[in-house]
Amino acid sequence: MRLNLEKCVFGVSGGKFLGFMLSARGIEANPDKCMAIVNMVSPQNLKEVQKLAGRLTALSRFLPCLAEIAKPIVGLLRKVKKFEWSIGCEEAFQTLKERLGSPPVLSKPDPEADMVVYLCVSSDAISAILIQEKEEQQPIYFISRMLQKAETRYQLLEKVALGLVHTARRLRQYFQTHRVIIQTDCPIAKVLRKPELAGRMMAWSIELSEFDISFEPRGPIKSQYLVDFINELQPKGHFASDLWTMHVDGSSNSQGSGAGIILEGPTRVTLEQSLRFAFKASNNQAEYEALLAGLRLAQEIGARRLICWTDSKVVAEQVNDNFQVKDTNLLKYYHLFQRMRNAFDEVQVKHTPRADQLARLATSTRKPGHLRTTLHLDLATPSVTSTECMTVEEPTRTWITEIIDFLEQGKEPSDPSAAKKLRTQAAKYSIVGGDLYRRGFSVPLLKCLDSVQADYVLREIHEGICGFHSRGRTLAAKVLRAGYYWPTLKDDCAKFVKHCISCQRHGNLIHVSAEELHGISSPWPFAMWGMDILGQFPIAKGQCKFLLVVVDYFTKWVEAEPLANITAANVQKFLWKNIITRFGIPHALVTDNGLQFTDQKLNRFIQDLGIKHRFTSVEHPQSNGQAEAANKVILTELKKRLGDAKGAWAEELLEVLWAYRCTPQSTTRETPFRLTYGTDAMIPVEVGEPT
């Protein structure tokens, strides 16, 4: 290593480094850069304003709420007809000079201590300060930026989330190596953890899930710089948990039923939610559902005092005990409301005559992604659905219990390292209806299972009605696609397959090395099919002893039918019934040179439809390898299912085909069902263990 002595300094306690002054106290702003602004005269033209903006940007980490203070100056950089240095610009300029006269000293981060972030927002800017708690609150970094024109129209809650996301992006190195505590009275934590988020809030929630972030109410302020930071945006950026206002509206029409909710906090905190009911509901029932959903939302946010406005006079008078509830179904809603009301310090329900604008948000035919609401939720069952209660033993604690306790009650292990690990892990999970869900990649949410539930899911997917005795990796992929998760999923799948007697008895014994896949020219789904015949099988019901199999080269979709005789007429009937009338006329059909395929009548039928009939080489059956591979898979699965009952192969065929179509293929990484219909099939395990 070579060093330039002219650029090296040894044995000093401080000095200039990368444009900053480093000392034992911390990181200080370069005095030369500060004086360059302090000694500036007021800009007289656009070029001088640009010079000032560049100098301020270089010192932005030392200036709290820079974007908010410099807003009049930055406005001159936009396209204006005439340059005018206003009184507001001069006041902002003098404020910046005053602060640069004694800029704050930024502290060196302690790698063992937690980071604390304070957020402030205004109508045009977002600001943040990163500090650490030592003897006093020592600033580490100030961040501030102006909002874009579209961002200024965000709700206040979305602006706070945007400020957090922007801070995490700018200070990624700190967020990745420290636990970060966000101190705010805004209910942003409970909103970001809700799984029914829509649009940008969902994207931000996923982006922030990689960091160890926790939220706490804003505590006492011990630093003068922090006082200035908070006071700069205090009227618009501070939150207090006092009286909340809620507007609810439910309606039922020919397109369905739904509800809309607007929850407004004491300082312009607004949260919108639209609900679509997946059940038939009367108008009064929809109004009650809207009111109850609003109470649940307010309770999750942490509101204690609430005023509810509803356009249903019946509901408002019933819950206030002015009208008698005669309908038995509405009486259930009334009692449920009274129980939920006790969770608040104060709940007032008032009637307001207005249109059904809120409810139409949910009952309209627009997709949830097109709604302006922050949250969108589909309610599958009514809130008063009665369920049978049974006395059961209290379940033992599982890996799920620890995460739920942390998310709901903030319980952490006493060991600091275990607590840090739990906080990082819990950021990837959400609670929906009392169940724990993990954010996934292929599907939005994965239901978390304990050992008993996981054992049922594995058995049902591997050897159930739609079960396919696949290998461990494929089994794990099917479990994830079905919407389930637990930490030891891959290991459990591999172990389960090793203990499956049918898989071990009829498993493939591979003695040759794997070959690279060969390209197949199939330009669109169902353009080219490969056909082959399996047999003879033991005689089954209907004297069937042969199996006619056809597979699509593009989607890997398989059709098969047991036959008593393999004649050309049966092949023609199979083609018409299972291929042409269901998937359209194919471009090509690949078969071997069997008599039933070379029949003149069959070939005339194929040629009249414009189908190209391609024959494989006599000595090389692998030239129709797609059909041969499908034959092998079907035959192996039949052996694993039947055991000694070999005569029942025809009855088991439909379940084998169903399982094959719902299993991801190693070549496409998708299931034939999804490639054919654009979505995964509903399989029995999702009925036994709903996701």
UniProtKB/TrEMBL annotation:
Q: Which Pfam families match?
A: Integrase_H2C2, RT_RNaseH_2, rve, RVT_3
Query: What are the RNase H type-1 domain coordinates in residue numbering?
Result: 240-364
Looking at the UniProt entry, the stretches that span the membrane are: none
- Kindly indicate where the leader peptide sits in this chain: none
Family matches, as SUPFAM superfamilies: DNA/RNA polymerases (SSF56672), Ribonuclease H-like (SSF53098)
Q: Return the EC number.
A: 1.4.3.1
Entries under Gene3D superfamilies matching the protein:
1.10.340.70, 3.30.70.270, Ribonuclease H-like superfamily/Ribonuclease H
Q: Name one GO biological process term.
A: DNA integration
Keywords (A to Z) from UniProt: Oxidoreductase
- Its protein name is Pro-Pol polyprotein
Highest taxon of source: Eukaryota
Q: Where in this chain does the record put each Integrase catalytic domain?
A: 521-680
Please name the PANTHER family in this protein's record: RIBONUCLEASE H
Q: What are the top taxonomic ranks of the organism?
A: Eukaryota, Viridiplantae, Streptophyta, Embryophyta, Tracheophyta
Question: What GO molecular function terms would the record report?
Answer: D-aspartate oxidase activity; nucleic acid binding; RNA-DNA hybrid ribonuclease activity
